[in-house]
Design brief:
heterodimer, A: mainly beta, five-stranded antiparallel beta sheet, five-stranded mixed beta sheet, B: alpha+beta, four-stranded mixed beta sheet, about 20% helix, globular
Chain lengths: ~450, ~220
């Protein structure tokens, strides 16, 4: 249940600077928005850098809560989600508009006067069986219409955050026309006090659960396509071994423990097999293994080092890193058989491919002037662009909606997680007391 | 000894179907719709670990480790700088003390020198490490019951998985060199720890050059 910890003052100052950049000319809104941001983020560690050129002004009224229900007001969680997406700005509520929590209390012209393009109201109800229902109504203010109204049932107040994330996803989708990322989960490795913890958490860092813990390193978590299992590499046997762990009950099996090193698991889109890197035939090469285990089948053969396999979403290609050309570059090979093709050409170090869910984009790590950045390539045009200005980026992975890339980087010597939108405009950093690395966004 | 890895269960709450997950229903103003969440079932906090104390590749245990070492002077382990030389152990194969079982435990023996260093993005063994490799080859050939793990490492820069493969190549490179010197394949396993276990913490070349290495570990040591 522990959220990411508070970020330090100097990053707050930087955030304020960025906010003033976004909101120049709107001083009243700036003051009100700042108070919202600092309240929302003082307890978490999410630092937001940049944002969309045009943000949708949305008013979110605190939801009515029944007496005795403890927990975050869903309105706060939804506000934080929408704000950190970079596509929304929060319109402050004032007594003039009232604090509606039911449709009959809404006076849309007043919200229009307050500058809101959208209005969200809601309430939490206790059901006769003790469960809670969260109801919300979303309005298009300029058009003076109700866009959607839904109710979400949760077993207890522990479910209120997750209901709020779902509502944020629906609001995002209604207003922007594409799926939101707020109710997703991420896996990552936290190193602290000499232990490596593989954790799964909400995308805002709440509800973190440690699923595996070891005094030896854990790297390369990979989600099964249905989100029920994690494959990862653990060094608990003093060498890298690949495991598959079921999240529901914590049970796990060895997937690959052959002579030499076993690493870099990647699931096929149908979840039936994994690609792994094995060194049992001397150099690191890529093999396929059934998800249930068994004899690996070598799929490509080179005298160079091949690793970091990842399937294209259509299952046609395997992208991977190889130094067969003298420097590490990304290649792809047809799974039906055929020759490997080189994909990256610019620069002397391109590694860690991740393919977007629609198969059109590839995120990867590109070295430029000795610094490692997240870069993005349009696979049709082979145009590439560097998305980040951080220097030690690693392990990019796409959000399920394909709009955001999650990666690890290092700030002031400490490992943090970061996200960047595919247009490079919206960036966030998530930090904890400890070293964060190896993130993977759940499908 | 290998410690157990603990797998922490989710206290009866499945991540896939957690009891706190909301269910969704259209609003029905007349009565609140009660859609049941899938009940979480994983009640047993299973400690699913098969991380026992198995040796890395099974096989025989060194049998002669109780024999006295040649010298017992309590000197500190010699340290090889990447830029240093190992001329003191040249002509190793001519030295009979390098064949006595247990000699690798003597901190004053040339066999106490266990680390081969590499240049950036390279797995080429510098000639200055040839005497070190010859000493270990002589010892391993004289003691076929001993096994070594050749552990490749890299500096911290770049992808962890690419570094794992690069460390593997450094380990393989040492394995090839020992094989050329006559050591049996079955006595060696080359593995990589990539950038995960730096010898020296630090973010500059002085640390990095100490971390690009292959370490020789005797099994059961």
């Amino acid at each position: 249940m522990r959220p990411f910890a508070a970020f330090p003052i100097d990053t707050m100052a930087r955030m304020v600077a960025h906010l003033s950049f976004w909101l120049r000319g709107a001083s009243l809104a700036l003051v009100l928005l700042l108070s919202t941001v600092l309240t929302v983020h003082a307890s978490m560690t999410i630092e937001i850098i940049g944002g969309a050129a045009k943000r949708i002004p949305i008013a979110i009224v605190p939801f009515a809560m029944p007496g005795g229900v403890i927990g975050d007001n869903p309105a706060n969680v939804i506000s934080a989600d929408l704000f950190r997406s970079g596509y929304f700005e929060t319109v402050a509520t004032s007594p003039r508009e009232g604090q509606p929590t039911r449709p009959e209390q809404v006076r849309l012209p007043q919200w229009r006067a307050a500058g809101a393009d959208a209005l969200l109201i809601g309430q939490v109800l206790t059901l006769p069986d003790g469960r809670l229902e969260v109801r919300f109504w979303l309005y298009d203010v300029p058009l003076q219409t109700l866009l959607t109204a839904r109710g979400l049932t949760v077993p207890s107040s522990n479910g209120l955050r997750s209901a709020a994330h779902r509502i944020a996803d629906m609001v995002y989708e209604k207003l922007l026309g594409e799926a939101g990322n707020f109710s997703g989960r991420i896996a990552y490795v936290l190193k602290r006090d000499g232990w490596y913890e593989l954790q799964v958490a909400d995308t805002d860092g709440y509800n973190a659960v440690t699923v595996a813990r070891s005094p030896e390193p854990i790297i390369s978590p990979a989600w099964s396509p249905d989100g029920s299992r994690l494959a990862y590499v653990s060094f608990e046997k003093k060498k890298p071994v690949v495991y598959v762990q079921r999240l529901a009950d914590g049970s796990r099996q060895v997937l690959a423990d052959f002579r030499g090193s076993n690493s870099a698991p990647a699931w096929s889109p149908d979840g039936r097999q994994l690609a792994v890197t094995l060194s049992r035939d001397e150099v690191s090469q890529i093999y396929l293994i059934d998800a249930a285990g068994g004899e690996p089948r070598r799929i490509a053969s080179s005298t160079a080092l091949d690793t970091e396999p990842v399937f294209s979403p259509d299952g046609q290609w395997l992208y991977f890193t190889s130094d067969r050309g003298g420097s590490p570059q990304i290649y792809r090979i047809p799974l039906a058989g055929g020759q490997a093709q080189r994909v990256t050409f610019e620069g002397g170090y391109n590694v860690s491919p991740a393919i977007s869910p629609d198969g059109r984009l590839m995120a990867f790590i590109h070295r430029r002037d000795g610094r490692f950045h997240v870069a993005l390539m349009d696979l049709a045009t082979r145009q590439m662009q560097v998305l980040t200005d951080t220097s030690y980026d690693e392990s990019p992975s796409f959000a399920p909606n394909g709009r955001t890339i999650l990666y690890a980087t290092r700030i002031n010597g400490r490992g943090v997680l970061a996200t960047v939108s595919i247009d490079g405009r919206v960036r966030q950093r998530l930090s904890l007391s400890g070293d964060l690395r190896e993130p993977a966004w759940a499908p | 000894m290998i410690r157990r890895l603990l797998v922490v269960s989710l206290a009866g709450c499945s991540l896939a179907a957690c009891s706190t997950m909301p269910t969704e229903a259209p609003i029905d103003e007349s009565k609140a719709v009660a859609t049941a969440s899938p009940a979480a079932t994983g009640q047993d906090a299973r400690r699913a670990s098969d991380a026992g104390a198995r040796p890395i590749s099974g096989g025989s245990t060194p049998t002669a480790v109780e024999q006295p070492v040649v010298e017992t002077r309590p000197l500190p382990t010699p340290i090889i700088e990447p830029t240093g030389t190992v001329s003191a152990i040249s002509a190793a194969s001519a030295r009979p003390e390098l064949t006595i079982p247990g000699a690798h435990k003597d901190p004053t023996s040339p066999l106490a020198q266990r680390v081969i260093y590499f240049e950036f993005d390279s797995a080429v063994i510098d000639a200055r490490f040839q005497p070190l490799l010859e000493a270990h080859a002589t010892y391993l050939k004289a003691n076929p019951g001993f096994k070594v793990i050749l552990q490749g490492h890299t500096d911290e820069r770049g992808s962890r998985e690419y570094n794992l493969a690069l460390g593997q190549r450094r380990a393989e490179s040492v394995r090839q060199a020992l094989r050329l010197l006559g050591v049996a394949e079955a006595q060696m396993e080359a593995v990589s720890l990539g950038e995960e276990k730096p010898a020296v913490e630090g973010h500059d070349e002085s640390a990095w050059k100490m971390n690009r290495r292959t370490e020789i570990h005797y099994v059961g040591e």
